[in-house]
Automatic annotation (TrEMBL):
InterPro entries: RCK_C, RCK_C_sf. Pfam families: TrkA_C. Residues 61-146 form the RCK C-terminal domain. This is TrkA C-terminal domain-containing protein. It comes from the Bacteria.
Length: 179
């Protein structure tokens, strides 16, 4: 009698993969633990959002902490302004387009925010579990590190990105206000 096996269960391999997942990406594992407790409607909505933003290929994962080291422009911005998930995940060349990235989980202290909406406010210290296409994750890093890029995606204002252009723009503004 032939046995048609679809998969093989190797307990030691499964335990090793789970342990590695908990060590390498503890926030990814937290997302999995929360996701399995959700209903089918949530699962389908999350799947559809990922497919819409990232396509049908398995998205890449990344974890970013909104800190001076990993997101200096965001930390400076949050000192004086509000920033939402939707504003941060905008294309740096055309902010009318969302990045092919989705935040799966925000870890804020002891609070977990599962698949946050676009209007969810971000805070310094938030850990973001991201899923997306590689180019979207690269584009996001521009907003994390460059204040001019972050201001554009957050407000649609184009501001000078170099010191020389900032000085010239400020002088031009000062001259037009006095004249």
């Amino acid at each position: 009698m032939a046995l048609d096996v679809d998969s093989v269960f190797v307990p030691t391999d499964l335990v090793a993969r789970e342990a590695l997942a908990r060590i390498v990406h503890p926030n990814f594992w937290r997302f999995i633990e929360e996701a399995v407790q959700q209903d089918d409607e949530w699962a389908m909505r999350t799947r559809d959002q990922l497919v819409e933003r990232c396509g049908r290929r398995v998205p890449k994962r990344d974890v970013i902490t909104l800190s001076d080291a990993e997101a200096p422009a965001v930390v400076r911005w949050l000192a004086d302004h509000e920033l939402t998930v939707g504003a941060l995940l905008r294309d740096s060349d055309d902010r009318s387009r969302p990045l092919p990235v989705r935040i799966l989980l925000i870890v804020r202290g002891t609070e977990l925010i599962l698949t946050p909406d676009d209007d969810t406010s971000l805070c310094v210290g938030d850990q973001l579990l991201l899923a997306g296409k590689g180019d979207g994750l690269i584009d996001l890093s521009e907003a994390l590190f460059y204040p001019a890029t972050l201001e554009y995606v957050a407000t649609a204002r184009v501001v000078p990105s170099t010191w020389v252009w900032r000085v010239l723009t400020e002088r031009r503004r000062a001259g037009s206000q006095t004249g």
